[in-house]
UniProtKB/TrEMBL annotation:
<dbReference type="Pfam" id="PF05418">
    <property type="entry name" value="Apo-VLDL-II"/>
</dbReference>
<dbReference type="GO" id="GO:0045735">
    <property type="term" value="F:nutrient reservoir activity"/>
</dbReference>
<dbReference type="InterPro" id="IPR008404">
    <property type="entry name" value="Apo-VLDL-II"/>
</dbReference>
<dbReference type="GO" id="GO:0034361">
    <property type="term" value="C:very-low-density lipoprotein particle"/>
</dbReference>
<keyword id="KW-0732">Signal</keyword>
<protein>
    <recommendedName>
        <fullName>Apovitellenin-1</fullName>
    </recommendedName>
</protein>
<comment type="function">
    <text>Protein component of the very low density lipoprotein (VLDL) of egg-laying females. Potent lipoprotein lipase inhibitor, preventing the loss of triglycerides from VLDL on their way from the liver to the growing oocytes.</text>
</comment>
<feature type="signal peptide">
    <location>
        <begin position="1"/>
        <end position="24"/>
    </location>
</feature>
<keyword id="KW-0850">VLDL</keyword>
<comment type="similarity">
    <text>Belongs to the apovitellenin family.</text>
</comment>
<keyword id="KW-0758">Storage protein</keyword>
<dbReference type="GO" id="GO:0006629">
    <property type="term" value="P:lipid metabolic process"/>
</dbReference>
<dbReference type="GO" id="GO:0004857">
    <property type="term" value="F:enzyme inhibitor activity"/>
</dbReference>
<dbReference type="GO" id="GO:0042627">
    <property type="term" value="C:chylomicron"/>
</dbReference>
Length: 106
């Protein structure tokens, strides 16, 4: 029973967007700031597999993924990962600038 609940919670967190939205994004896009594309793609594959076996269970996953708790959690994660991505890009820019000015002497 505990394993079933853990599986359902994991699927809910993974399946946090609609399937067409996932397929419209590229996982390996170079300048992609959205780190949640890969979990969304995994969730879409899980949804497709579950939906093939049981459309009723697939609909259940879709219904659960559209609740306010899951949407709020997903939005929070998107917001925080975007903030961390920007900070990481700024840090890389500073390191690159430091490398060119102090180490190479440009």
């Amino acid at each position: 029973m505990v394993q079933y609940r853990a599986l359902v919670i994991a699927l809910i967190l993974l399946l946090s967007t609609t399937v067409p939205e996932v397929h419209s994004k590229s996982i390996f896009e170079r300048d992609r700031r959205d780190w949640l594309v890969i979990p969304d793609a995994v969730a879409a594959y899980i949804y497709e597999a579950v939906n093939k076996m049981s459309p009723r269970a697939g609909q259940f996953l879709v219904d659960i993924s559209q609740t306010t708790v899951v949407s709020g959690t997903r939005n929070f994660l998107i917001r925080e990962t975007a903030r961390l991505t920007i900070l990481a890009e700024q840090l890389m820019e500073k390191i690159k600038n430091l490398w060119y000015t102090k180490v190479q002497g440009y």
